[in-house]
Amino acid sequence: MITKLEKLFLFISFFILIATVFWLLAPNDKIRYHLIITGMNRAKIHPFKAKFKPYSGKTMGGAAAMATAIKEAAASFNNNPYDIISLGTELSGTADAFFTKGESIVKIMNALQVKTMLLSNIDFTYGCERLEELSKIASFSFLSSNITQQTTQTPPIWLKDQIIFEINNDIKMGIIGITPINTPNLTPKENIHNLVFEAPLVNLKEKVDKMRANKIQLITLLTQYSKDHLKPEEWQEITEIGPDICIMLDQELEAPSPFIKDGIIVYTISSYNQTKEIDILSIELDTKSKKLTGLSSQRIPTNLADIDPDPAMEQVIEEATKNFIVRKNTIIGSFEADYSRSYNYECPIANFITDAIKEKTGAQIAMQNSGGIQGNISSGTFTVGDLYTMLPFDNKVVLMNLKGEDILNILKISASRQRGVMQVSGLKYSFEYKSPQDYKLLSAHLSNADSTEVEIVPDAIYKVAINNFLAEGGDNFIPFRNGEILSVHGSQRDILEEKIKTDAASSPLRISYEKRIIIED
Fold first, then answer.
1. 155 lies in the same domain as 296
2. Domain boundary at 322, 348, 378, which?
3. Are residues 369 and 312 in the same domain?
4. What's the CA dihedral at 318, 320, 323, 328 to 10 degrees?
5. Which of 21, 230, 290, 465 has its CA 20 to 30 A from that of 393?
């Protein structure tokens, strides 16, 4: 016979069961959505040993490790929706990219299921016609909201100026993006023929207003602005455009948390990524009010000690790169030690490059923009693939007559460090640097073959060897445009390949720092 206490217990149990079922079946007013963000990978599809903190000495990255990290992250989302986007700088940077003019990278991004990629200046390396061809291979879109054609004043057919993601049946996210407006100064003119890179406020505010009118509840702006170097006027433009989320770059060792500024959620990915990490921005939305109610993020390392490369992606990589593997692995020579490139200081790699150009052309002076050197040198054998990683841009060497006054103005721009220092051969210079606004060129001397040094004379004419990108005033070194071009030589890489083969014929090469650039900072 059931006692009163037992009846009470059964009643309470039944009540708890009914309440639980009701709670489970009741409509959930919240939804979580995840943006998996990559970018700044510079076509690094194979693992590599990281040189800098926090991953120094560890084997990191590569597309197969990224694929595993993305799959594991997606599995943790509990069937909540997600999309994968790229902040760009993907299509150039290694031999794997160059030998297929970006096609191998596009096929890998297809396999990663990327939905859209912001175009950066680096992604124009192969020119607009090639981007149009790649857009037909890509299962994702190329994105930029501030590029139009000069002739039609509309975006090219291979470019999307906005993308819409459906988070659920009632909530949509609009994606817009800003390609750096100084791209014309960062890539050869023929690569961006007929394109106009508009200031963000020209039409982005109008796009956002139209999206809002079309009931796009959440708007995300992709940029390559740096959180650490963002100018007040750049942020003012962003606030006037009015996105809900702005994604940009950082230069920090530890992943910064997303933060809210002027009502905009700001999230950053590392500008030094190169497949070492994937970033995830997770947001919680109220399905009734369509308002954002929660926010979290994580930066996941692709450390090969902790993650197994995805076998399916490894097959994609092998298929995409098989036709040029022999050429890529051809040994040119060898180096005695490890050498690192430098953006803001003299470096042995740049000294070797400028010496080779000066020697080949018979110039008095050779110059190389620091941004054109994209890879380091490791001790031991040096291959064609290593050469293409070090010099990924398809530049030719130009010999010109240039006035001393222009050389001095170029060195003043170098002293600002806004586009890195100008690396040199046949020249020594010094400058004082306190900030991008507070700097001063102190001296500049021609280095003669007999080791004497003569001050650069403003009215004198000098024979100067540079790459064709600089000849156009690239990286904002505008005074090069005043030069009188005497001759155009072969590929910069071909000149370097010949130099390495010759100098390393009997023993590994040793290159050095020579105090060509003295900085007081």
1. yes
2. 322
3. no
4. -80
5. 230
